[in-house]
């Protein structure tokens, strides 16, 4: 059912405030199996709650970023139970729990996308706040190829990124976007040459850590939370958050430097 231990399926490291999460099943185009799914949820919760993490870099091993769920592994697991559909629902819920932890955290996330992204891989990618793609990356849905429907937050995250009309085109057709098209659609933040991808993504993350790290994290949280609540609630949250930020030593030092100019 699983051909990789959890630590091998998704590698994880925290160095100098930067958490690096690496999808690492390149032989399966980094499609997640049940073991990887559980680890994804656990790592996401850990990252969201760790005080020593100021930024997150999400990347992947091999030629693809992520092909979504490993249908072969999930079919094998479902075949061992009397309730195969409920088994798949449970696995989807575990992935979604991990997505919520990262999405709702006050930790800015950059994704480095080096190759094909398909199906639920779109959801893994779109959990990030900044997406840097290689010029060799491609993007497609492919759910209907397997007679399945979107998961991994794709039905919400994709229209948020590109609008409902374009999201429907991706999930209802076999269209595959090039990196240039994905940039034009607003699906990714920027496109770089393949050999520049790792350094550029790390540059983004290190920039957050070198700057007002806490302010970047809270700005991400405020923007992400806004879509799901009334305007007045966001205004109250903004007022409270900027007041708390104003009193931090970091802000006081930066304000002093700014006003002195």
Automatic annotation (TrEMBL):
Annotated InterPro entries: ClpP/crotonase-like_dom_sf, Enoyl-CoA_hyd/isom_CS, Enoyl-CoA_hydra/iso, Enoyl-CoA_Hydratase/Isomerase
PANTHER family per UniProt: ENOYL-COA HYDRATASE (PTHR42964), POLYKETIDE BIOSYNTHESIS ENOYL-COA HYDRATASE PKSH-RELATED (PTHR42964:SF1)
Domain of life of the organism encoding this protein: Bacteria
SUPFAM superfamilies: ClpP/crotonase
Keyword annotations of the record: Isomerase
CDD domains linked: crotonase-like (cd06558)
Family membership noted in the UniProt record: Belongs to the enoyl-CoA hydratase/isomerase family.
Official protein name in the record: Enoyl-CoA hydratase/isomerase family protein
Entry's Gene Ontology molecular function annotations: isomerase activity
Species this chain originates from: Agromyces agglutinans
Coiled coil: none
BP term (GO), one: isoprenoid catabolic process
Annotated PROSITE patterns: ENOYL_COA_HYDRATASE (PS00166)
